[in-house]
Amino acid sequence: MRLTLASGSPRRRELLAQIGVVPDAIIPADIDETPLGGELPRAYAARLAAEKSAAVAAEGLVLAADTVVAVGRRILGKPSDMAEAEQFLRLLSGRRHKVITAVGLRAEGQYWHREVETAVKLKVLSHTEIAAYLASGEWQGKAGGYAIQGIGGAFVPWINGSYTNVVGLPLTETMNLLQGAGYVVPLDGEAV
Ligand SMILES: Cc1cn([C@H]2C[C@H](O)[C@@H](COP(=O)(O)OP(=O)(O)OP(=O)(O)O)O2)c(=O)[nH]c1=O
């Protein structure tokens, strides 16, 4: 069965590769990521994953995902510039927050999806740490302005839930969606 990954995120491709899933095509979806008025983080992520999967026309299965950081009702997406990344890091400093990834899988006429939440705590960040992190550029393209899989990992003393969900694709749920749609993953019996 043909699988298209509707994502430009190298992390999503690498996470799939980690479980032996190699898409037949990778086509990033170009959609408007502006939240609707009053839209809650989980609903926003779910809507974007659905829109990304629908924006790519392909035979077979189309997989898409969207990751956001949620501080209460507030949605932190990818910072648009360094000033916004700084705002996000100041807000997240010393705080527990949620990282929500919505995964969507589309096949002709059908759509399956899961929204997964991981609780993450960031340590209290000093001005020096924030300045050095901003200078590293790692915040670019990362929801909430940090990357747990990078230097940002040093800011995270605690998580509760799926790690791969924070990096951008919850592998357990993604594998379940693929299996449910009849896609044969290596864990079904092929050599990994
Ligand atoms: C919190 C966090 C997010 N991220 C990333 C995962 C996502 O790639 C990104 C959130 O942006 P998304 O809009 O979910 O995805 P994307 O623009 O990177 O790719 P595409 O829409 O084409 O699939 O933040 C990390 O890599 N590490 C982290 O610790």
From TrEMBL:
Subcellular location, record wording: Cytoplasm
Pfam families from the UniProt entry: Maf
Keyword field: Cytoplasm, Hydrolase, Nucleotide metabolism
Biological-process GO terms, alphabetical: nucleotide metabolic process
Keyword Hydrolase attributed: yes
Enzyme class: hydrolase
Keyword Hydrolase annotated: yes
Enzyme Commission number(s) from the entry: 3.6.1.9
Active site (record annotation): D66
Catalytic activity: UTP + H2O = UMP + diphosphate + H(+); dTTP + H2O = dTMP + diphosphate + H(+)
Main location: cytoplasm
Swiss-Prot/TrEMBL cofactor(s): a divalent metal cation
Annotated site (Important for substrate specificity): R11, T67, Q149
Coiled coil: none
Organism domain of life: Bacteria
InterPro entries: ITPase-like_fam (IPR029001), Maf-like (IPR003697)
Residues of the signal peptide: none
PANTHER family: BIFUNCTIONAL DTTP/UTP PYROPHOSPHATASE/METHYLTRANSFERASE PROTEIN-RELATED, BIFUNCTIONAL DTTP_UTP PYROPHOSPHATASE_METHYLTRANSFERASE PROTEIN-RELATED
Similarity-based family: Belongs to the Maf family. YhdE subfamily.
NCBIfam families: maf
Function per UniProt: Nucleoside triphosphate pyrophosphatase that hydrolyzes dTTP and UTP. May have a dual role in cell division arrest and in preventing the incorporation of modified nucleotides into cellular nucleic acids.
UniProt protein name: dTTP/UTP pyrophosphatase
Biological source species: Pontivivens insulae
